[in-house]
Specification:
single chain, 4 helices, alpha/beta, 20% strand, 150 residues
Length: 150
């Protein structure tokens, strides 16, 4: 039996689709505090001419601004792709409680692949991590995006 995609991940997947429509890599991120959406964005690297404008980074910035705090304790991040090393470090520094991600990224991911950021002794905060929620849809979005560009 197929499980429904949780509402925050559904929102992130919709944001990823919007990012793809704007010619951005389809990644969406949502930060929740309890049942409140604190921030919700898609990738904006090309449109903003900013290589750091990954959905996770933009969501963290927006959530910090909204909450008036550089620490996001009590918040959860929902993202459609396994975060890279830059985003994993930002997640750690922001003290996010939990990370939920859809598709794994064997090439650029840094949670279950590559440097496995949260397993490093120099990592100051390790959120709980849950993978695979909405994985098939997120992976299909990414495949379609990159296939169209080849």
């Amino acid at each position: 039996m197929k499980m429904p995609v949780p509402t925050p991940m559904r929102h992130a997947l919709d944001l990823a689709a919007q990012a793809a429509a704007a010619d951005e890599v389809p990644v969406g991120a949502v930060i929740m505090r309890g049942s409140e959406v604190v921030a919700a964005v898609g990738n904006a690297m090309h449109g903003g001419l900013d290589p750091t404008a990954h959905a996770e980074i933009l969501a963290i910035r927006a959530a910090c601004e909204k909450l008036g705090d550089g620490r996001l304790m009590g918040c959860d991040l929902w993202v459609t792709l396994e975060p890279c090393a830059m985003c994993a470090a930002a997640i750690s520094h922001a003290r996010i409680d939990r990370v939920y991600y859809a598709a794994s990224d064997p090439k650029g991911g840094a949670i279950e692949h590559g440097p496995r950021w949260f397993d490093q002794p120099t990592c100051h905060h390790r959120p709980e991590v849950y993978a695979g929620l909405g994985e098939m849809e997120a992976a299909a979005q990414l495949r379609a995006f990159f296939t169209a560009r080849r």
